[in-house]
Amino acid sequence: MLLQQQKETRGRERTMEAKPEEKAEFEEAEIEYVSYGGEHHLPLIMNLVDQELSEPYSIFTYRYFVYLWPQLSFLAFHKGKCVGTVVCKMGEHRNTFRGYIAMLVVIKPYRGRGIATELVTRSIRMMMESGCEEVRYLSYFCLGNIICNDEY
Ligand SMILES: CC(C)(COP(=O)(O)OP(=O)(O)OC[C@H]1O[C@@H](n2cnc3c(N)ncnc32)[C@H](O)[C@@H]1OP(=O)(O)O)[C@@H](O)C(=O)NCCC(=O)NCCS
């Protein structure tokens, strides 16, 4: 019951994020997901994060993530426009490996259609293939366990 109420509240909050006229018209199949592919992707990631997250980051912070773990960061494109991104890292933790989701953004007109879920799922899959046994959100970003599936 409580879970249902929380879901409905979240749904209402999300629909308030973008007015109906600002919602993008698209089919899920039109969204293209690509792994971080090099320096040309960096300004796209930085633009999205700067727009949507309050924390200001220097280019060195972004580079730290994408240079060391390029395979863990993904971008979502719609007709050539970057509409979402996830930036992650992984590291050793008590004789095992742990993945961290550092930044996660989808621009407002594209929210509520599963793009963040797909981005996170792809990153987590790569983390698991690389030996991670658990995944966390970095503490300075707080999304809780909303996007992740229990199976992770
Ligand atoms: C959070 C964010 C990335 C979600 O993107 P999205 O593509 O709309 O997410 P999805 O459509 O994949 O939603 C997946 C689940 O996340 C939850 N969710 C999505 N947006 C949410 C929000 N704003 N608040 C709370 N829960 C949210 C929903 O429970 C949804 O599950 P459901 O399908 O059961 O309803 C997007 O709202 C965003 O960029 N927000 C601003 C930046 C931010 O807060 N980033 C997270 C911290 S790093």
Describe this structure in words.
34% of the residues lie in helices and 26% in strands. It is α+β, with helices and mostly antiparallel strands and 152 residues long. It has one domain (34-152): Aminopeptidase, CATH 3.40.630.30. The chain has a five-stranded mixed beta sheet with strand order 1-2-3-4-5, with helices on both faces. The chain is globular. The relative contact order is 0.16. The structure holds coenzyme A. Coenzyme A binds next to α1, β4 and α4. Coenzyme A binds at residues 10, 13-14, 52-53, 103-106, 111-117, 141, 143, 146-147. InterPro entries: Acyl_CoA_acyltransferase (IPR016181), GNAT_dom (IPR000182), NAA30-like (IPR044542).
Tell me the radius of gyration.
16 Å
> How many β-strands, per DSSP?
5
CATH architecture grouping: 3-Layer(aba) Sandwich
Helical/strand content category: alpha+beta
CATH topology description: Aminopeptidase
Which strand-content bin applies to the residues? 25-35%
**Biggest β-sheet, characterized?**
5 strands, mixed
Look at the structure and give the mean pLDDT.
84
Give short descriptive properties of this protein.
binds coenzyme A, 152 residues
Would you summarize the structure shown here?
One of its GO terms (molecular function) is protein-N-terminal amino-acid acetyltransferase activity. With 152 residues, the protein is an alpha+beta fold.
List the helices and strands and how they pair.
Layout: H1 2-17, E1 31-35, H2 42-52, H3 59-68, E2 74-78, E3 81-93, E4 96-106, H4 115-129, E5 132-137
Parallel strand pairs: 4-5
Antiparallel strand pairs: 1-2, 2-3, 3-4
Bound molecules: coenzyme A.
